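Q: Got a minute? One more chain.
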Amino acid sequence: MSRFYNRRTNGLTPYVPGEQPKDQKYIKLNTNESPYPPSEAVLEAMRDAVNEDLRLYPDPDCLALKSTLAEAYDVSIENIFVGNGSDEILAFAFQAFFEAERAVRFPELTYSFYPVYAQLYGLTYELISLSETFEIPVERFFNSKGGVIIPNPNAPTSVALALAEVERIVQRNADVVVIIDEAYVDFGAESAVALVGKYPNLLVIQTFSKARALAGLRVGYAIGAPELIAGLEKVKNSFNSYTLDRIALAGAVASIKDFEYNRTIQNKIVSTRERAAKAFGDMGFRVTAAKANFIFVSPPGGNAKQLFDGLRARGILVRYFTKTPEWLRISIGTDEEMDQLVRATQSLLVEGSSGHD
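A: Always. Here it is, folded:
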């Protein structure tokens, strides 16, 4: 605690991002980044944006990017909000739509930034337990008094809800905002963007970080009814009108236009994910029905921490959470990286069965 902090700052428990090591070169399968680079068209657009215009502020309305997104999703510009990564948009949404005295509802096992935002903004929240197979119990999200936020697919489980189930949640919360966080939707789930025109309480948030291989660019966007978008704009313009720089805007526009490249790398990641899930299943692991760019696995015997440490010692990083001590979240890398992971895991299982430390 610090005597210079206010009470809220002293009480914060911040989000802990995945390890970004600098001591040696690792196979990084711990932060759900793309194993493939952005397209050359994106890189060229950003290089072209590095010019004398950097002395000028970027467009605070981001109209070029909004127009490109609106055309891609067949919606109006008034349905689009863009921001500095989906995390910033989530932060704005928590400020814009949720009240301290009415609890916002989200899964107990989910993206760990949600309780951080709630704590930061002095909000109450209600945690909903998942089933034994990590399914979201749809009915328990009905009739929330404060709002709902659900990632689809969920993290860290990689399990997705069908669009019909998402729609049931939206329908049964007509008087509050329902946020569907679709950071991983392009790897096998159904997007709720198709429902935005029917439901004024639905906000869908996506990111360029995963399926478009632009985690380092920090661009995200939301699609929703004009009333919700206006609320996000109101919060943003009370905080920082220039959240996206000229280079990020240029790269994001080029990425949306390069649909075929994005689809190609998404398909490669899905194919590798299925190979990896089968390999871990063949080794006796429990594996969830993955629909994201990561898998969620539990080793025979359940000692995930021992496997996590063993892989790290061999130069392979995966993600371990104390809330799920029998499970590891493993980002999908290239086929070669995943093959190295499988070989290292097989070796560690043999050592463990023979009694080696």
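A: The first strand starts at residue 27 and ends at 28.
Q: Perfect, thanks.
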